[in-house]
Amino acid sequence: MIILVWGWYFIYDIPRMSRAEALHQLAMAEVGARLYAENCVVCHGPVGEGVVGPPLNKEAFRGNPRENREIYDLIYRAIDNGRPGTSTTHWVRLTTGEWASYTAMPTWGASNGGPMNEQMITAITTFIMMGDWNLVGRHIPPPTGMNSDGTWQLDKMPDGVGISAEASLAGKQIFTNRGCVACHKIGSVGGNVGPDLTRLGEWGLDREFLIEWIDNPAAVPNRAPTYWSNYGGPYQLPIAIQGQPETSASGVQGAQLAEGAGGEGAVTGESAGQGGADPGIAIPSTEPLPRTVMPSMGLSDEEIEILVDYLLSLK
Description:
This protein has one domain. With 315 residues, the chain is mainly α. A hairpin with a 5-residue loop joins β1 and β2. The longest helix has 38 residues. 37% of the residues are buried. α3 packs across α4 and α5 crosses α8. The protein contains eight helices and five strands; from the N terminus they run αααββααββαβαα.
């Protein structure tokens, strides 16, 4: 009887539990897709391609959360604790042409003052590791700031700094009339697919880059940062944050070396310069960025010039 019981257990019960666990993980991943769409998509992209934050849809992050605990813990801790950096988006163009980011990742864990409990972070981590990225789009919140007659609330979009009221209005009209508003938000008007552009003039982007980007996003080779001052993995940038006036998401201020940096070629706070300047040193190669999902909007050269003037004035 004992042999029969154990035989039944191994033949029927263990596979049943495995199937139940697999179904539980799939359900958890679906919850994670919704949470990702509501909280993470504007920085990491609707298919995890990376924009303000690094790409998450990458083979190195895929796996079974129960079996690949090292990957699971890495992703979970990043969401829970956030990562240090500037409180507003801050990029620096390196001599190689790539962008480096000094931008903080917010703290999401409730234990650190964030809005998410353990179950929510587990769900997002499970989604990143084994979820279907095609599920994200259906959960992204709709655009805001539209009047009942279908027009956009241009008065809820900030005027630019250092440009005329007419130039601001022209930029707003192009932004709303030519479709940018469907994905991006300025002030309280716009979509939640791409990055919030309300303070884009403070990012550190140059005019030439923005013109090329809006004209034909798919043709821009360095569309987003590939080096991250606060990331201890393949996107590590061994440059100190020094002299930053803003505190990071975790309260870090002043000189802050990248996590894991400090080996050969690492730069100290004294040699890195102020505000995350390019140190002019050779930085190890990083993984290429995935293709952007942003389409070309078909703007004329004149429309692009007007829109870029407005975007760069947003501070």
